[in-house]
């Protein structure tokens, strides 16, 4: 029951961030927050389903399905991590260009 309380708290935090009174959230940020909320709901549903499966007898079919699911979740996790890293890297390059410390533009224009 602690997990559901935690999920409800995180969801209410997301809803507080995206409430009507919050003028600091852009439409794109709102879409990202909505996707994270949807992902959170899917993960809660997955957790519930896995709890149901683990309480019953384990069959070969269930074990194979869980292995496939584990690989897919690991792939999604890796892709999300790479996306976040790419955004952070791009943000760092943009900050470097704003400070005038990046000379790559002059070389790229001549090539």
From TrEMBL:
The keyword Cell cycle is assigned to this record: yes
Example GO biological process: cell division
Keywords on record: Cell cycle, Cell division, Centromere, Chromosome, Chromosome partition, Cytoplasm, Cytoskeleton, Kinetochore, Microtubule, Mitosis, Nucleus
Cross-referenced InterPro entries: DASH_Dad3
Region (Disordered): 1-28
Subcellular localization: Chromosome, Centromere, Kinetochore; Cytoplasm, Cytoskeleton, Spindle; Nucleus
UniProt keyword annotation of Cytoplasm present: yes
GO terms for MF: microtubule plus-end binding
Pfam families, A to Z: DASH_Dad3 (PF08656)
Bias (Basic and acidic residues) ranges: 1-10
Main location: nucleus
One Gene Ontology cellular component: DASH complex
Biased composition (Polar residues): 11-25
Highest taxon above the source species: Eukaryota
Family, similarity comment: Belongs to the DASH complex DAD3 family.
Record PANTHER family: DASH COMPLEX SUBUNIT DAD3
Protein name, UniProt field: DASH complex subunit DAD3
Organism expressing this protein natively: Exophiala viscosa
